[in-house]
């Protein structure tokens, strides 16, 4: 689900169309895209001395000397979303309208069709406000993937198959740790429900994408400090109830009540040793 979108204002476009977006509309949005990309690249390539001011308001001596050893920063997380919209075309449309202010690097249709909408090295607006571990700006270090799903239906098999191939490739390309594939609900427990309890995290983990509890669980210790355990995995525990629900939507799925049962505690204890 988008960080700050309002899907109601976006007209529906059928996925059956051979092109997801009409060529005329694409020509317009491509022009906006190019202009924005050029301005970002010139910003990244700026060669200025740093402007550092001391407590008296004086500028410290500073200069620019170009190093010869540098590269581009890589994404280190992947955040998975469902679109909460009705079709791939509708989502593509949302992400090509300036006023929605939302985007993702990839959108995956129910047929397994993969649409890339921003280069992996660029920052897309998909995660919004949240916290995971010590990360407070997830958009700056992650790739966002939107899965075409209205949030109430099972994920389509060809879609999940395509997603796994994509995730494996991203994992290899950028050496993304297995723990760093998370859901939007994990990043923003107070605001976001996606990709929800129907998302096949167990299958993902079997493919090296994120973790899943073992079948045999050692009981959690008596008086287990589950909030600290949730925090160490990455959850924002400022609202304990929301953190518990987010955890259960990801790792329990069959029960998403805001209460930690003995099974939930055992699962968390098991997972805490993997992160
Ligand atoms: Zn989302």
UniProtKB/TrEMBL annotation:
Keyword Cell wall biogenesis/degradation belongs to the record: yes
Record flagged with keyword Metal-binding: no
Gene Ontology process terms (BP): cell wall organization; peptidoglycan catabolic process; peptidoglycan turnover
All residue ranges annotated as the N-acetylmuramoyl-L-alanine amidase domain in the record: 65-196
Pfam families: Amidase_2
UniProt-listed PANTHER family: N-ACETYLMURAMOYL-L-ALANINE AMIDASE AMID (PTHR30417)
The protein, known as: N-acetylmuramoyl-L-alanine amidase
């Amino acid at each position: 689900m988008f960080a700050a979108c309002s899907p109601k204002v976006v007209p529906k476009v059928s996925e059956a169309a051979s092109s997801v977006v009409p060529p005329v509309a694409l020509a317009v949005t491509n022009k906006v895209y190019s202009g924005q990309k050029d301005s970002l690249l010139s910003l990244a390539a700026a060669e200025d001395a740093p402007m550092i001011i001391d407590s008296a308001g004086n500028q410290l001596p500073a200069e620019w000397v170009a190093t010869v050893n540098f590269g581009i920063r890589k994404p280190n997380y992947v955040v998975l979303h469902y679109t909460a919209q009705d079709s791939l075309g509708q989502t593509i449309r949302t992400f090509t309208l300036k006023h929605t202010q939302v985007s993702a690097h990839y959108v995956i249709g129910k047929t397994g069709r993969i649409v890339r909408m921003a280069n992996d090295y660029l920052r897309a607006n998909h995660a919004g406000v949240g916290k995971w571990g010590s990360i407070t700006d997830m958009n700056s270090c992650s790739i966002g993937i939107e899965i075409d799903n209205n949030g109430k239906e099972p994920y389509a098999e060809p879609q999940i198959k395509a997603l796994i191939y994509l995730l494996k490739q991203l994992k290899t390309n950028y050496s993304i740790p297995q723990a760093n594939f998370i859901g939007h609900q994990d990043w923003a427990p107070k605001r976001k429900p996606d990709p929800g309890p129907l998302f096949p995290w167990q299958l993902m983990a079997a493919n090296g994408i994120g973790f899943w509890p073992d079948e045999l669980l050692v009981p959690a210790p008596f008086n287990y400090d589950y909030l600290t355990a949730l925090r160490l995995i990455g959850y924002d525990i400022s609202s304990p109830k929301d953190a518990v629900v987010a955890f259960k939507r990801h790792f329990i799925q069959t029960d998403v009540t805001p209460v930690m049962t003995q099974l939930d505690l055992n699962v968390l204890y098991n997972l805490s040793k993997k992160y």
